[in-house]
């Protein structure tokens, strides 16, 4: 299965690595596919993973996993474009961590 993961942080990276080990092709939707953090994640995920923008990732996928910080959800969904007909899994958690 082709899986787009919007977000490449702790949650998105963990999902991508696990799904890739299960044999799925992973498309990380990120702002900067050339960022060092993203390159490292691609190396950890394996040959089945690529990084691209949200629209291209979502269009290439059968399933879209939303794995962004809570405050970024609206912008991430807009950036993914039309998700009609896609399975969408919401992996966000509406928590706001404050120093304390």
Structure description:
This protein has 100 residues and is α/β, with parallel strands linked by helices. The chain has helices at 10-21, 36-45, 54-60, 73-80, and strands spanning 2-6, 25-29, 49-52, 63-66, 87-90. Strands 3-2-1-4-5 form a 5-stranded parallel β-sheet, with helices on both faces. Helix 2 links the parallel strand 2 (25-29) and strand 3 (49-52). The longest helix has 12 residues, at 10-21.
Show the helix and strand layout:
Layout: E1 2-6, H1 10-21, E2 25-29, H2 36-45, E3 49-52, H3 54-60, E4 63-66, H4 73-80, E5 87-90
Parallel strand pairs: 1-2, 1-4, 2-3, 4-5
Which features does this protein show?
single chain, about 100 residues, alpha/beta, five-stranded parallel beta sheet, about 20% strand
Q: How many angstroms does the end-to-end distance come to?
A: 42 Å
Largest sheet: 5 strands, parallel
The strand count comes to 5
**Low-confidence runs:** none
Net shape:
globular
The count of helical stretches stands at 4
Helix/strand structural class: alpha/beta
* Strand neighbour order, sheet with most strands: 3-2-1-4-5
> Beta fraction of the residues?
15-25%
Rg of Cα set: 13 Å
Q: What is the succession of H and E elements?
A: EHEHEHEHE
Helix content: 25-40%
Task: Give the rounded overall mean pLDDT.
Answer: 94
In short:
This protein is an alpha/beta fold and 100 residues long.
